[in-house]
Amino acid sequence: MLIILLSLMDANFGIPQFILCVITMIPLAYPSYTPQIQGLLFLGLIVGTLVAEAFFSGSLSDKIVARIALTRKTSRTPEMRLWLLWPAAAFTSIGLVLFGLSVQYNWHWATGQVAMALFGFGVQVGNTIATTYAVDCHPEHVMDVIVFYSFHLNLSAFASPFFIVPWVEVAGWAWSFGAQGLIVAVTTICCIGVLQIHGQRLREWKGPISWPSAT
Hints:
Elements: H1 2-13, H2 17-29, H3 35-40, H4 43-55, H5 58-72, H6 85-104, H7 109-137, H8 142-171, H9 173-206
Helix pairs in contact: 1-7, 1-8, 1-9, 2-8, 4-7, 6-7, 6-9, 8-9
């Protein structure tokens, strides 16, 4: 139950579905540039991802969990990690909306790079925290959790190129990527809110996983 909620959130959070939408559409977003220049336009995404991974993912999550546990004077729980998903969702949504607007209204390419950096930052933080949370919930079934999680996300990534092109053709860049940003925000509010409030009770209600560990 927890992993299904988490996978649903991530599939719409941009990990990896919406990131594939941005990557797929780069050639159409900047058709006047050569393939070499279009390749350089991925730098914003790379920078945002690297910054997130180096400073704002696993290590910061551990510090937040330790600080919350110390403040509340309670033992650490997996749900304490989820606080970092809120700013991650905000950065992802802003990046998606800004990217769509920059292409729709022919803003300077640097604006698109800022949008991709924000988007990449949010996606990387979200992916790291979501994976860590899933493992924290079921540490005795790490391989099973990761395999299920990866299968679901890669399936959503496979689907994204089939719908993003007709979506942009019908609705335009601003509306299609703006809608994606809205989906990220709404899904985060619903799924993460449920997990933060009821995650521990859901695990207790379900009880231990019955099948043997893959490890």
